[in-house]
């Protein structure tokens, strides 16, 4: 608009302005058609456009790729430009939406943390209940075995010893029975031989 009042631009200055124009377009559109770029940058052919975009990528002004089949520039990243007054409302709205999204995520995380804490408390209570039941069962088993031992009123080792060695009266009876049987057998053989 004020080209008549300004000195003529060199080719490097024109390329710098074109790079900044691509950055401005990239802030609005992530896939910029070649036709829009050619019109905005006032270039004559696609070859000049692609060379300019490659220069911008090497200068780290933007990152992206040229889609020659679909005739468009796909922008992944671009540097920022100075903020204009008319853009402040858009930036404010974007930041408010971001803050609201953060609050939603934060409330979701807090809800999950409270659920996890409740689950942990339930598991601890269940573990304590199981441990108390196990302790009660151990006490019951000890009391039962003690009662069984008291009912027999003897030490288990003593009981085993008595089973191995019979009482003294039982030994004498068995011995006398054996001797009497032996005497009877001898006598019967004598009687048998006399009768022959």
TrEMBL record:
<dbReference type="InterPro" id="IPR000717">
    <property type="entry name" value="PCI_dom"/>
</dbReference>
<keyword id="KW-0963">Cytoplasm</keyword>
<dbReference type="InterPro" id="IPR045237">
    <property type="entry name" value="COPS7/eIF3m"/>
</dbReference>
<feature type="compositionally biased region" description="Basic and acidic residues">
    <location>
        <begin position="156"/>
        <end position="165"/>
    </location>
</feature>
<protein>
    <submittedName>
        <fullName>CSN7A protein</fullName>
    </submittedName>
</protein>
<dbReference type="GO" id="GO:0010387">
    <property type="term" value="P:COP9 signalosome assembly"/>
</dbReference>
<feature type="region of interest" description="Disordered">
    <location>
        <begin position="149"/>
        <end position="196"/>
    </location>
</feature>
<dbReference type="GO" id="GO:0005737">
    <property type="term" value="C:cytoplasm"/>
</dbReference>
<feature type="coiled-coil region">
    <location>
        <begin position="120"/>
        <end position="147"/>
    </location>
</feature>
<dbReference type="GO" id="GO:0008180">
    <property type="term" value="C:COP9 signalosome"/>
</dbReference>
<dbReference type="Pfam" id="PF01399">
    <property type="entry name" value="PCI"/>
</dbReference>
<keyword id="KW-0736">Signalosome</keyword>
<comment type="function">
    <text>Component of the COP9 signalosome complex (CSN), a complex involved in various cellular and developmental processes. The CSN complex is an essential regulator of the ubiquitin (Ubl) conjugation pathway by mediating the deneddylation of the cullin subunits of SCF-type E3 ligase complexes, leading to decrease the Ubl ligase activity of SCF-type complexes such as SCF, CSA or DDB2. The complex is also involved in phosphorylation of p53/TP53, JUN, I-kappa-B-alpha/NFKBIA, ITPK1 and IRF8/ICSBP, possibly via its association with CK2 and PKD kinases.</text>
</comment>
<dbReference type="InterPro" id="IPR041481">
    <property type="entry name" value="CSN7_helixI"/>
</dbReference>
<dbReference type="Pfam" id="PF18392">
    <property type="entry name" value="CSN7a_helixI"/>
</dbReference>
<keyword id="KW-0539">Nucleus</keyword>
<feature type="compositionally biased region" description="Basic residues">
    <location>
        <begin position="175"/>
        <end position="184"/>
    </location>
</feature>
<feature type="domain" description="PCI">
    <location>
        <begin position="1"/>
        <end position="80"/>
    </location>
</feature>
<comment type="similarity">
    <text>Belongs to the CSN7/EIF3M family. CSN7 subfamily.</text>
</comment>
<keyword id="KW-0175">Coiled coil</keyword>
């Amino acid at each position: 608009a004020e080209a008549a009042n300004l000195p003529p631009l060199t080719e490097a200055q024109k390329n710098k302005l074109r790079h900044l124009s691509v950055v401005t377009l990239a802030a609005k559109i992530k896939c910029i058609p070649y036709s829009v770029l050619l019109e905005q940058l006032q270039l004559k052919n696609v070859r000049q456009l692609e060379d300019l975009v490659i220069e911008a990528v090497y200068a780290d002004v933007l990152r992206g790729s040229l889609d020659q089949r679909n005739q468009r520039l796909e922008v992944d990243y671009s540097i920022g430009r100075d903020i204009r007054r008319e853009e402040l409302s858009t930036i404010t709205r974007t930041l408010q939406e971001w803050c609201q999204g953060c609050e939603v995520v934060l409330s979701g995380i807090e809800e999950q943390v409270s659920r996890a804490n409740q689950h942990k408390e339930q598991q601890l209570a269940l573990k304590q209940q199981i441990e108390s039941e196990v302790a009660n069962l151990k006490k019951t088993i000890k009391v039962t075995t003690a009662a069984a031992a008291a009912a027999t009123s003897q030490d288990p080792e003593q009981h085993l010893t008595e089973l191995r060695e019979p009482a003294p009266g039982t030994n004498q009876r068995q011995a006398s029975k054996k001797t009497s049987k032996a005497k009877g057998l001898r006598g019967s053989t004598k009687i048998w031989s006399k009768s022959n």
